[in-house]
Amino acid sequence: VAGKIRAPDEFALIAGLFAPLAAGYSDAYGLTDDVAYLDVSGRDPGGGRLRRGEELVVKTDAIVATVHFLADDPPDLVARKLLRVNLSDLAAKGARPLVYTLAVMLPREVDLGWLERFAAGLRADQDEFGVMLVGGDMNATPGPSAFSLTILGAIPAGQRLLRSAAVVGDAVFMSGTLGDGALGLRALHGEFAELAKDERGYLAGRYRLPLPRLALGRRLRGSIHAAMDISDGLLGDLGHIAKASKAGGLIEVERLPLSPPARKLLERAPALLKTVLTGGDDYELLFTAPPEAEAALAAIGLELDIPVTRVGAIVAGKGVRVLGRGGREIRLSRSGYRHF
Ligand SMILES: [Mg+2]
After folding, report:
1. Which residues of 277-292 are buried (b: 16+ CB within 10 A; e: fewer)?
2. pLDDT tens, 7-23?
3. From the CA of 195, how far away is ligand 1's center (Å)?
4. What pTM, to 2 d.p., does this model score?
5. Can you tell me the distance from the alpha carbon of 251 to that of 324, in angstroms, rounded to the nearest whole number?
6. Gap from CA of 331 to ligand 1 centroid (Å)
7. What is the C-alpha separation between 132 and 115, in angstroms, rounded?
8. Distance of CA 309 from the midpoint of ligand 1 (Å)
9. How far is the CA of 330 from the centre of ligand 1 (A)?
10. Stretches in the chain below the pLDDT threshold 50
């Protein structure tokens, strides 16, 4: 059923669109009760439940129309990105995803077709990442539509990967490639006509559909110090690790892992370095470890087919410095993207 419907029946929408997403989790009672239950005893080894000796990891991330997505973005991709940015935070903490709740704020005139495609996007990623909807809320709003997703994951108790665990002398590593998401957003806005269509498509895809590095995060747990995902840009996010660890950071531009399209763009327009370092939307893992761990970490990356690259170091002092060719310092006017 497509088209606008007026004042939708909240319960009909929940039953039709969202209850099927909770069908695999019996303790959500088909979203017909007020709450869902999570057995944390480890006695029930079923999907979405905690195992013995595990602790919960919780994360919330919200998106607002016109701020985080646009009205004409494909709704399935909007949903999948919302789920994936939350999964990316679990990945950075080495967690196994369990279940999630979703709060939906919609204008009074709801485009049902849009919402159906949104739910189909959630279904696709639930199947891909083995996570289930267990509850949520739906409200009408006079403002733009907004979605808030809270996800629960599990780690072996005590094996926390904190921002504050970096040590002076650590090497800084990241997964995947840097800058594709931010360059992809600009490609979606019509820039980079010098690239081939498939190169622009690659970058746009990296913006719209991040790859949460769940398997990598779980493998890294135990052999690294500090960790987080890169959502606000490498420069800003390494700054978060450095500050929490009461240290400074160094980024070596020559080491940055770039995709072929990103490398091509940067060769033609070196000023794009700022977008690459501060644009955000990478959703790669950023972590620190003793420099001796480099070979072992690279081997884990090779095994999982995800590049793991050493991009800098944790040093004494404050703030993050960016070093270019020959170790010369590069200054950028603003680090990362600040919401306020
Ligand atoms: Mg994060």
Report:
1. bbbbbbbbbbbbbeee
2. 457 888 889 999 999 99
3. 30
4. 0.94
5. 9
6. 24
7. 18
8. 19
9. 25
10. 1-7, 335-340
